[in-house]
């Protein structure tokens, strides 16, 4: 029987990497969850556990064209967007559309339903930062016409329109800026460093590091991010709020660590650096620490080992875009 008191969430982008973990957490907390996803970069297999719950349903839809959900809604989580550079450079117009039209559609639905709107923004709003580490008060250094601008500017618009609905229409909002997050359910070929390096190591192929490998990232394990989202949701803050790890690692160090954790013999090779690739990336997470009591708990080595274990599993099919399942070649 349906629990009439359970809060009800719409998770746009819920079939993706982060979105599917969020669906799992909301279900575990007793929520009812409606996932809306076009499967552009997500996959139904990510929702295999969620789909066993009667409180879960999925609507396959592009939120820029069609976003309507029957019944009451308490919170709309807007995570819909290609997120890896490979994905958003392959889908530049779709990325701009979902950041702009998709965000507007989520906010209009929130207003109609009297619901709150939770936006997954990104550290990319800081561009190639000239302030390090980046606090929420930093306005960023974004090239508005560079190749990455399709993602960065879409998210900056998404933040702006979310705040406009909050200020002028009274929609309760939460905005997080996610710094590089990794973990199970990332696609091997989504182009982000962690799955790329693991895939190359497991295939005993050269591990390809951009530039001289001295550029840094701080990598947060997905369970820590979801805990931060959960705490922020229950706060009285609107954000933006940085969520990410402060444990900074160079790309060369990351490649070495993955090589050692996989016992791979892969050589590490250095390739051309992408345009506007940020030099340093580390959040100032004082706000999350002070106001939410949140700090990431899972050390990089442990999180990488879990991710490697997941990617290694023969029975886990490789995920491609549009929800197709390809045979694993590992
Ligand atoms: P992902 O590509 O795995 O998930 C994105 C999901 O959005 C996919 O399931 C995709 O099919 C869906 N989607 C895209 N366009 C859509 C549309 N028009 N209509 C409906 N669904 C659509 O990426 P992710 O890593 O899970 O990222 C989730 C969110 O978090 C994104 O908004 C991303 O910008 C943000 N984020 C993630 C990271 C990270 O490190 N993973 C960092 C910063 C921000």
Task: Provide a concise account of the structure shown.
With 330 residues, the protein is of the alpha/beta class. It has nine helices and 15 strands.
What does this structure look like?
The radius of gyration is 19 Å and the shape is globular. Strand 1 (8-12), helix 1 (17-28) and strand 2 form a beta-alpha-beta unit. Residues 315-330 have low confidence and may be disordered. Helices cover 35% and strands 18% of the residues. The chain has a domain at 8-183 and 220-246 and 281-298: Rossmann fold (3-Layer(aba) Sandwich), CATH 3.40.50. The strands form five sheets. A seven-stranded parallel sheet has the order 3-2-1-4-5-6-11, with helices on both faces. It is of the alpha/beta class and 330 residues long. Nicotinamide-adenine-dinucleotide binds at residues 12-13, 15-19, 37-42, 62-64, 79-83, 87, 98, 102, 120, 122, 178, 180-181.
CATH architecture of the domain at 8-183 and 220-246 and 281-298: 3-Layer(aba) Sandwich
Instruction: Tell me the CATH topology of the domain at 8-183 and 220-246 and 281-298.
Output: Rossmann fold
Q: What sequence of helices (H) and strands (E) makes up the elements?
A: EHEEEHHEHEEHEEEHEEHEHHEE
CATH class of the domain at 8-183 and 220-246 and 281-298: Alpha Beta
> Kindly, what is the distance between the CA atoms of the first and last residues, rounded to a whole number of angstroms?
43 Å
Give unreliable regions as ranges.
315-330
Report on the biggest sheet.
7 strands, parallel
Number of helices: 9
**What is the general shape?**
globular
Listed once per kind, the bound small molecules are:
nicotinamide-adenine-dinucleotide
């Amino acid at each position: 029987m349906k629990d009439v008191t359970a809060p009800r969430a719409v998770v746009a982008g819920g079939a993706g990497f982060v979105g599917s973990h969020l669906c799992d957490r909301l279900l575990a907390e007793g929520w009812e969850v409606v996932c809306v996803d076009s499967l552009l970069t997500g996959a139904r297999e990510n929702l295999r556990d969620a789909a066993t719950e009667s409180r879960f349903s999925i609507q396959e839809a592009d939120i820029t064209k069609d976003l309507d959900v029957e019944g009451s809604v308490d919170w709309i989580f807007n995570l819909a967007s290609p997120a890896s550079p490979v994905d958003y450079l392959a889908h530049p117009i779709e990325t701009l559309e979902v950041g702009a039209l998709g965000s507007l559609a989520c906010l209009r639905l929130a207003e109609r339903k009297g619901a709150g709107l939770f936006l997954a923004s990104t550290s990319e709003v800081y561009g190639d930062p000239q302030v390090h580490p980046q606090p929420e008060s930093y306005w960023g250094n974004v090239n508005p016409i560079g190749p990455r601008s399709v993602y960065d500017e879409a998210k900056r618009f998404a933040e702006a329109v979310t705040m406009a609905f909050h200020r002028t229409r009274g929609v309760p909002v939460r905005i997080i800026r996610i710094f590089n997050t990794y973990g199970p359910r990332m696609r091997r070929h989504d182009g982000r460093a962690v799955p790329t390096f693991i895939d190359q190591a497991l295939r005993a192929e050269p591990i390809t590091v951009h530039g001289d490998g001295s550029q840094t990232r701080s990598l947060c394990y997905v369970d820590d991010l979801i805990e931060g989202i959960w705490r922020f949701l229950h706060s009285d803050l609107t954000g933006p709020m940085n969520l990410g790890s402060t444990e900074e690692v160079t790309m060369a160090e990351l490649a070495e660590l993955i090589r050692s954790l996989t016992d791979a013999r892969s050589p590490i090779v250095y390739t051309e650096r992408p345009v506007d690739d940020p030099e340093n990336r580390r959040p100032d997470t004082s706000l999350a620490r002070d106001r939410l009591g949140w700090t990431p708990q899972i050390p990089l080595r442990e999180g990488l080992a879990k991710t490697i274990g997941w990617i290694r599993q023969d029975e886990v099919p490789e995920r491609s875009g549009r929800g197709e399942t390809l045979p694993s070649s590992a």
